[in-house]
Amino acid sequence: MKLLTFAHRGEAQAFLSEFSFKPVDFFFDGLLISNDYFLLITGEGPHSASEKTISVLAHYSTQITHVFNLGVAGSLVPQLKLHDLVWIRTSYAHHAEKCEFKSFSSKNPKAINDCMTAFSRVIDLEEKTKLSHFANIVDRELWAVASAAHLFKKSFNALKIISDELTNEKLDICQFVKDEAPLFSKKLLDEFILSEKDLTPKKALKAKEGNDSILLSDPLFYFTVSQSRKLHSTLEGLALKGFSEAALNNETEVSAIKVMDKLPKERARLLLLHLSEKLNPISVKIRKSLEAAIAPLEAAKIQVSYDSTFEEDWLNINLKIQSSRDLEKVKNALKIFSYEDYKKIFDGNFDV
């Protein structure tokens, strides 16, 4: 069964009617169940959303397979307008004037927008502009819900509807959201039902992922099917931030990758890395910290790999020993390398 989470009952009202939910006798109010879904009203803010989602997942861990967060969100870019429906790719969090290190990504191929969860309401245009460097929309709960799903190893999806535009001049946005709740909820329900039935035509998906991309059709690169999809979603995310593919293709960094003495497949990997880091600037800092941490291992010719999404703190090593000297190098490298410091980077400590 899927767990559907909403901050407020108003956002969930169309779902409550459509699926005939009934209250569950639980530790707190707000948990309901139907034939196919659990539905949880988390309350506003990341603390309440985290506590309640974790409680439900802990109690019904064997029954819940997937977590869905739905509700309203504010736009951080001019392209996203009132009533636009937005599938979320990655969730970030902003707290006490800084971004939380950990982020959580969905596996939804339709998702091209990122969401910033704020620990306090974001109304000021200057604050919205600052957050727009990391995400296209802002909410109050998604990161907490996604974090809980990650903790229990459940996949998650998120669907938001824009209730507050970037330059919104409404004096009472809370009252506006309450007044518009029936419409917001109905639009969310309609889109959710479409996603559940998977009505996206395969032909349309194929066309969307076709060779109409400048970079995808460039013979200097070779993209696998999964890389092609990632390129497409990354380019769409960059487009929302004002970067056209034509402009990206002419960047100095992209031109430099094209002339590298490497195989087309490796050039494609480096291009995707560059574009992903352009879309998510904090990943550059993370990658450099990780490279510094594993440098002693690589100096001993130990092949090292880690989670490219930076969500898991595992480390994979592969080595070849052909002499006692090689063995001594490996021993010394492992003595120097600190796995605890490596793990701290995944908790946001870049100074280790």
Description:
This protein is an alpha/beta fold. It has 3 domains: 2-197, Nucleoside phosphorylase domain (Rossmann fold, 3-Layer(aba) Sandwich); 208-279, no CATH class; 282-345, no CATH class. Helix content is 44%, strand content 19%. It is built from 13 helices and 13 strands. Helix 1 packs parallel to helix 5, helix 7 (225-240) runs parallel beside helix 10 and helix 9 packs antiparallel against helix 10.
* Separate helix tally: 13
Total beta strands: 13
Q: What would the principal axes of the Cα set say about the shape? A: globular
Write down the CATH class of the largest domain: Alpha Beta
The domain tally reads 3
CATH topology of the largest domain: Rossmann fold
The whole-angstrom Rg is: 22 Å
N-to-C order of helices and strands: EHEEEHEEEEEHEHEHHHHHHHEEHH
| CATH superfamily annotation of the largest domain | Nucleoside phosphorylase domain
Structural class: alpha/beta
Strand order of the largest sheet: 5-10-9-6-11
